[in-house]
Amino acid sequence: MPSSKSPVVVTCTAPVNIAVIKYWGKRDEELILPLNSSLSVTLHQDQLRTTTTAAISKDFSEDRVWLNGREEDVEQPRLQACLREIRRLARKRRSTGDEDPRTPSLSDRVHVASVNNFPTAAGLASSAAGFACLAYTLARVYGVEGDLSEVARRGSGSACRSLYGGFVEWQMGQRADGKDSVAQQVAPESHWPQLRVLILVVSAEQKPVGSTAGMQTSVQTSALLKFRAEALVPAHIVEMARCIQEQDFPGFAELTMKDSNQFHATCLDTFPPISYLNDTSRRIMQLVHRFNAYHGQTKVAYTFDAGPNAVIFTLDDTMAEFVAVVRHVFPPEVNGDKFLKGLPVTPVPVSDELKATLAMEPVPGGVQYIIATQVGPGPQVLDDPDAHLLGPDGLPKPKPAA
Amino acid sequence: MPSSKSPVVVTCTAPVNIAVIKYWGKRDEELILPLNSSLSVTLHQDQLRTTTTAAISKDFSEDRVWLNGREEDVEQPRLQACLREIRRLARKRRSTGDEDPRTPSLSDRVHVASVNNFPTAAGLASSAAGFACLAYTLARVYGVEGDLSEVARRGSGSACRSLYGGFVEWQMGQRADGKDSVAQQVAPESHWPQLRVLILVVSAEQKPVGSTAGMQTSVQTSALLKFRAEALVPAHIVEMARCIQEQDFPGFAELTMKDSNQFHATCLDTFPPISYLNDTSRRIMQLVHRFNAYHGQTKVAYTFDAGPNAVIFTLDDTMAEFVAVVRHVFPPEVNGDKFLKGLPVTPVPVSDELKATLAMEPVPGGVQYIIATQVGPGPQVLDDPDAHLLGPDGLPKPKPAA
To answer: Which residue numbers delimit the Diphosphomevalonate decarboxylase-like N-terminal domain (chains A, B) (predicted)?
Structure first.
């Protein structure tokens, strides 16, 4: 129980999510309301997570934020929008008499520290996990309950999908004020225990167009994006939810690939065009199609976000063979022993017949490394005070020696 | 004047055309009727041409065809469709009494030899020039006049656009029998004398998906293709014709790039996806956009067909600088003196300021060579008997020593 002297401190973790029906383009830039609904898979925090500590104290003179150990500008509009929104919800809660007397005063300033356990170079949408974790942690420290979609969404649209585990739909909503643009769980993480996820980190020569700017240009210039959002995505959402409910892997996999390709098609239709896929990405796509053709069924799917890295979905019985095939086509250059991170995968041989069917010239180093993971739960509170990223003085703890 | 003893021999040339509004997908596979109208620029035959000789004689026992010196299977359905169609038109003409008494009998067999003056490796749509030349040459030898769109189209859809010089629209038509699916000149080759064309031949690691099979898969699987063909291309055609009529280069250039990107977007939306653009293609696109941004106006455009090679449009006052920029970003690896073929281009330096704006790391060998050309006329008859590819015996002449 917090004393009046030491700060109120809460530490939480939140997951990364990967969209299988893609979000691209806003109908409202200020409120971050999307052109279409999207649907994602929450990845397990054992492999990929953001950890955030929030502390509130009368002694703090201003709001401050540290990201991966470096202080950030707290005036960033999206950070401000999250803080404003959580304080609005806290105020509303208190005015309705639901207040927990232990929660801190709304006039007190907050310190926030956040770290990712994965390198930015992995090209994963760290902002989704980051803002979900911020929203969740602030809600705990301010004693706010209920749906946090709006708080997270104001930070980064897809962050609202990281508020839940398992399979999550971000419903676009219809209202102009965005109150119905919320995330909702389609199925919990326990629903499809065989599903596995591989992140293939691809060597990129240059930083791609950022997603915020990219989306804006797409909305302004791509007629195909508008058509996709209005006429095609609604049916994709319904079909994807069905595939998940029924654990229909081939259906899930095909639609995941088609939706990813269609999203990248709208990027290419943008002017000037946006290309997130590079030759290695396309080689991975070809590998997946040939692997599936060899097996006579869709056993593996790819999806790509705003960068060249592939996210692969498969089932537990196929993961070892597919990892072996990736290692065959993209032989590790230097880090053979560190090529595979995350879940353990038993090494298996690739048959000569499969190699011959793939008919792909090996490209050493094309894939830097693989992270093996699975579907996971939503944000978690860490009760261990040692987990706090902020010390009793409200400043980031020094990093423990590695 | 042909005697009754020696064969009737005619030799013609036909040009390559490059679509600026793309054709992709058939509504009728048999008649080769397109999903949408398309519009192309005819390239000059001084640089790129097909030459075809047709000979007819009572002494020939069967139809025979040689392509680049190698005998082809004359039973190929598309070759048969052209031969059938030209004989049908000749028969029709004779039945109406328009016959020239010198024209050979319809029961006589034909020998055809055809050569391209550009390597297949250039990835140019040789079938368009080839079937246009075949249609034009057969029409001459059979004494058929009038529009040959249907003859050429039955060989290869885009071949009908190579029947005219300058700027050509292939009108999709509405009729089920395809009689109104014809090529029509939008403006002659003399209309826009400043326009220049550069073909950037890109190193490709593997043969891409053929356009016939690619189109079929796209028609079957891409919702974006259907939408583009129905809802977007009609306005593109009208706008492109206006840009050409008014010699509006920035308008022409932007629409050319947008239409190319949209076509490749529909390829990516195909399942399994088709990728004709590789990292070098995308680098060329980026180079064009940065070059235009540096100049503050759209001075250069790219377009890509079913392969990684870029076709660049620019005006005569910009060609030398753009060639220099291509040489800067893609330094020739071995053939510095043979890097530029076709029209002469004065070497000019690239300013340090422009190099800095481009900010592109040179990729040696990414572009193999450049062909510089311009807008050109339609098919031509060669009167010189030395030009015949078939000898008096109706067989291909031996190749002259180089």
So the answer is: 14-183
